[in-house]
Amino acid sequence: LRVVKFRRTGESSRSDEDVISGEHEIQIEGVRTELEPIELEDGAAVPKEFANPTDDTFMVEDAVEAIGFGKFQWKLSVITGLAWASNYAMEMMILSILAPQLHCEWRLPSWQVALLTSVVFVGMMSSSTLWGNISDQYGRKTGLKISVLWTLYYGILSGFAPVYSWILVLRGLVGFGIGGVPQSVTLYAEFLPMKARAKCILLIEVFWAIGTVFEVLLAVLVMPTLGWRWLLILSALPLLLFAVLCFWLPESARYDVLSGNQEKAVATLKRIATENGAPMPLGKLIISRQEDRGKMRDLFTPHFRWTTLLLWFIWFSNAFSYYGLVLLTTEFFQAGDVCSISSRRQEVKAKCSLTCEYLTEEDYTDLLWTTLSEFPGVLVTLWIIDRIGRKKTMALSFFVFSFCSLLLFLCVGRNVLTVLLFIARAFISGGFQAAYVYTPEVYPTATRALGLGTCSGMARVGALITPFIAQVMLESSVYLTLVVYSGCCLLAAVASCFLPIETKGRGLQESSHREWGQEMVGRGSHSPGVTRSNSGSQE
């Protein structure tokens, strides 16, 4: 009797006794794709298409692993990347272009210019949890579509703002819509097989870089002739393309199973199998018990309490350090080196606060170079995340950033300063992406979108606070500013090491910890073609 081999992998590192107890999930290592006959015990033969590679039952995780990575996932990668580039990267990049332009055109004081940036983060912070709740309650596709259409609508309206107060409110509403973009990662991750998940989510960062580069190039073409209003309108148009492509997106099969919609989940899995040209597991799809979805209390159960608190601090530190470095880079480059900042600040204070300068071609070139520094970070993270694990990758990224920040205490020259800032930004951006890989993996389907949403909200808190450190505190003490960033990242590195669960090599959870174990115990006892062994391998 020919059978498909299985390997059971626990939710985290477990002993053989844990494997025998049944708290595990099935990963299909390989499924034959040829239409070969399979011999039965009585000598009869049946076509492969009637064989059941997962015996009489299977779960969504089994189907996703059996179908593998193919044409469907490539299409999904492009669409998710488009959301990341158009709805996130481009809208965030506008902040660095729009602020100096309005500062000059409307003669805004510095605090009003800063408020234009802060109000976007306020909108993102206030909406992240809401979008996560909507995605857990009504579906990932639903939450993503509404957030994209919201951003598109208010992004275009921003181009028609007559006065400062209008654009302040409209950009805040744009930020409210951007807060739902991380849900594209939730939807994306739930369709990826385990071996491809980390690499694919990390490669989404490439679309961030593409989006920022495209926005800068668009600004170079539009700003000198058409002005900032057309830049805002044209920057929102790629969202229209994504909104149209959303009709192709299926709802997450994991969400459909959790909400009790078995037929729709099976139809989605069959569609993916057809597009990938892979066999669909036969038998009955196991439906998880329906449970409350998107409840904040689920993030603080004994199993997830420490994970949630530590992740909130890690995400806070990521955004706090990343956006802080972006602000500090301009200050350092304008001063020439760290030791010259104090004397330069004294000169700046003597100038009128309304003195303004339009962005030059050299400024746009510097913006492009700053963006390109993130590519090495993605490549390094891509190389190490499946080798040393998610936790150690985040810890390493924070540690390297902290070390580079401390080296800035030395009065290094312009070239060494550029290298240190380049390395620091590469690693902090890579650490950000590692967090985007880890967070959807650690939470079960019922709270995955909410968990990612709350973490994203905490990141916006860090982004809100960092201007007061990188700009206000910098006026008092350069070294105290560097100590704050370095110390914060050291603590985040420790927090990464203390995360209770390592998700490397682990499939996505379908339900809560206790229910997951009960499901698999029952499943193992009702699958006659699967036998247990102490080694964890099955035939």
From TrEMBL:
Membrane topology: Multi-pass membrane protein
Molecular function terms, GO-annotated: transmembrane transporter activity
Cross-referenced CDD domains: MFS_SVOP
Subcellular localization: Cytoplasmic vesicle, Secretory vesicle, Synaptic vesicle membrane
Biased composition (Polar residues): 528-539
TM stretches of this protein: 76-99, 111-134, 146-167, 201-222, 228-249, 303-323, 393-410, 416-438, 450-470, 482-501
PANTHER family, sorted: MAJOR FACILITATOR-TYPE TRANSPORTER HXNZ-RELATED, SYNAPTIC VESICLE GLYCOPROTEIN 2
Listed name of the protein: Synaptic vesicle 2-related protein
Taxonomic path: Eukaryota, Metazoa, Chordata, Craniata, Vertebrata
